[in-house]
Amino acid sequence: MRKVLTGFFLAFAMLASPTMAAAGAKVAPVGSIYFDVHYGSQGLRIGEARHDWRFAGDKYEMSLNLEAKGLAGLFGLQYEQRSVGTTDAKGMRPERFTVDQRGRKLESAEFDWQAGRVSIRRDGSERRSGAIAPGDQDLLSLWHQARRVAETGKAVKRTVVTNKSVKQATLEPSGTETLKLAIGQVDTLRVRAWAEEGELDIEIWLSQQHGLLPVRIRIEDEKGGVLDQRASRIELGAPAEDPPATQNSTQN
Question: What is the pLDDT of residues 182-215, one digit of tens each?
Fold first, then answer.
């Protein structure tokens, strides 16, 4: 069970990043999306995830924190993924992608755009590498590119870099749908993403009311297992700061 759920959760990281904006709109420079995570054909809720992002000039940083609850939590399925980089005419341009999973050594992908090469590392030591070209993405930054697919209506291929591999994926539009979620009723554009090796079949629903942010993500593996993520809350703008602590004094 640990192996199956871990594979699903790592695949989920591909899906939980927000897209940049709806056509003609600007992306919120700071924001968060909260997801309820469901597993299996019965949609058993097994955990929560939170995705945060920040844009400043041509720089970006984003993270995904996922924590399983109940039985799934007993398997230590909790991790943080981070992506940092820049933006250009091709979209997102990752510089470093990291995965910090409970009980495991830090894994990362280091992008060298001048050399056209990415290095996948574990605890600082290179495990494998591969070629990259403008427009290629890591798991988190990939979904900023999904907006472009939804807007153009044309399928594209991208090299997708995970914490373990460098592989080809196809992103293609797959229609529209109205969803009823905890955040309300939303009109969505659907984008399907699938690995050429047949490892994943993923659908992502992009909310037209929220700048094409992903509000539902469904993953089905080659064995028919399903992981379904549904947005429960969206926050745009910097979070409010906690009030300063006050010190109580007692007079005798």
Answer: 999 999 999 988 887 767 678 889 999 998 988 9
Please report whether residue 244 resides in a domain: no
In angstroms, the CA 37 to CA 19 distance is 19
Task: Give the pLDDT score at 98.
Answer: 97
Q: Which of helix, strand or coil describes residue 146?
A: helix
Q: Is residue 104 part of a domain?
A: yes
Q: How far apart are CA 2 and CA 78, in angstroms?
A: 12
How far is 94 from 59, CA to CA, in rounded Å? 10
Model confidence pLDDT, tens digit, residues 157-170: 988 888 888 888 89
- The Cβ-side half-sphere exposure at 123, using a 13 Å CA radius, reads 3
Judged on CB neighbours under 10 Å (0-12, 13-18, 19+), 142 is buried
Those residues with Cβ within 8 angstroms of residue 188's Cβ, 6 or more apart along the chain or in another chain = 176, 177, 178, 179, 205, 206, 207, 208, 215, 216
The tally of domains found in the chain comes to 1
- Does 111 score more than 50 pLDDT? yes
CA angle 183, 186, 189 (to 5 degrees): 130
In a domain, 220, yes or no: yes
Minimum mean pLDDT range among 95-109, 176-190, 234-248? 234-248
Which alpha helices (DSSP H) does 13-163 contain, by range? 70-73, 142-152
Reported pTM: 0.79
Rounded to whole angstroms, the Cα distance separating 84 from 93 reads 9
Instruction: Report yes or no on 100 lying in a domain.
Output: yes
CA 41 from centre of chain = 22
Range of the domain at 10: 2-236
Q: How confident is the model at residue 73 (pLDDT cuts 50, 70, 90)?
A: low
